[in-house]
Amino acid sequence: MTTTPGIPAQPRIALYEAEFAADPHAAYARMRTRYGPLVPVDLEPGVPATLVIGYDQARRILNDEDRFPADPRVWEQTIPDTCPVRPMMEWRPNALRSAGPAHFRYRAANTSALGGVDQHHLHALVQRVAAGTIAEFSPAGRADLLSQFAWPIAFRVLSALLGCPDEIGRRIADGMARIFDGVNAATGNQILTQAVIELVALRREQPGLDIASRLIAHPARLDDTEMAHQLVTLYGAGIEPLTNLITNTVLKILTDEDFSATVHAGGASVREALDTVLYRDPPLANFCITYPPQTVNVDGVPLPAHQPVVISMAACNNDPALNAGGGSGDRAHLSWSTGPHACPARSHAYLIAETAIIHLLDALPEMSLDLACPSGELTWRPGPFHRALTHLPVLFPAPTAV
Is residue 179 assigned to a domain? Predict the structure, then answer.
């Protein structure tokens, strides 16, 4: 039981437990019945927050930066450095955790740097990386498509876009994984910080045709600390969510017989599969965190000052209050967020995931992929923010030796 001065005590729902990760949509349904669109939750033991599961309420909050800024500096004064979720939530000098002029400055630099990515070059890059990745596991006739396909593609493509050498990139990926899992998150934060500092120094000395170099050259004149935190954000938004978007979409194609048949018959596209997953099981299920500086009343519910307000994109997308259903072609979901903090790399993520999955299906024609275990035996990683499998094992005919 968690209490807040002036607000009646209510039992909070734990988002960090394996039970929630195993069936979040059942949990969201129970939340609606008990609390309505604004739910008292714990992100970790002793870390209270409000989870927004109503679509209308989420849109209002995400577009109200004055009452719901993204700056957590007052909140984090009450949170120990060892808290597993702190590295995902703490203040950084970047667009994600800033408001007002600072947010505008950081976002302008990031939008400009991302806008310099050539889409044709990116498409070719993903095809090349996907081909090499598939070639590594195809002789075995079995693979874990999370660790052997989706993750390497996200890691290698993002590192190439950012101008990051493999050795530094591996440490960045290790740090990010620890932070997302909430296991040794403080250590992960240290690993990540040191690695991005080295990347900034490298690109200042040797600029190239990459996102990091364009950030450095931007008129915002970001200093080394600011540069490091922009790269932390780009890696955080790139590797883990993109890995999970690819994996969750492949799982959808493998386990939904009607959907699989239409994809391979040309009746539905991989883009539609991606949209279906973004609508139902987005890779960042609960995020878009804000920290109201004063208590705010939303539809009769007081949201405490300086306590996190977390948007559940997964629950909001499937809010029964919406008149429109979640058809495969419906892109009105909140999985890219909305308002001043909407994802600036949406088109890039779509292109990478779509190209990678198409390449996989082309390399293994006639849907020769099969799950290596019953779908009910697949497990989901616990954690309040992500929707992520632990693994996605598949079987397929190995190439015949000639």
Answer: yes
Which structural domain range is residue 223 located in? 2-395
pLDDT in tens, 243-277: 999 999 999 999 987 676 666 655 568 888 999 99
CB 303 within 8 A of CB 295: yes
Listed in sequence order, the DSSP H helices in 65-184 are: 73-76, 86-89, 100-115, 119-137, 151-162, 166-181
In a domain, 152, yes or no: yes
Residue 174 phi, psi (nearest 5): -60, -45
Within a domain: residue 301? yes
- Domain CATH for 34: 1.10.630.10
**Is residue 142 in a domain?**
yes
If you write DSSP's letter for every residue of 353-368 in order, what string do you get? HHHHHHHHHHHSTTT-
Residues of the chain with pLDDT under 70: 1-9, 181-183, 258, 260-268, 323-331, 365-367, 400-402
Strands 309-312 and 286-290: antiparallel
Strands 13-14, 38-44: pairing is parallel
* pTM across the whole model: 0.90
Contacts of residues 101-104 at CB distance under 8 Å and 24 or more positions apart, as own/partner, are 103/65, 103/70, 103/340, 103/341
Burial group, residue 207, by CB count within 10 angstroms (0-12, 13-18, 19+) = middle
**Nearest alpha carbon to residue 211 among 159, 171, 166, 167:** 159
Strand partners, 286: 312
- DSSP secondary structure, 89-119, as one string: HS--SSSTT--HHHHHHHHHHHHHHHHTS-H
**Number of domains composing the chain:** 1
- DSSP characters over 252-271: HHHH-HHHHHHHHTTSS-HH
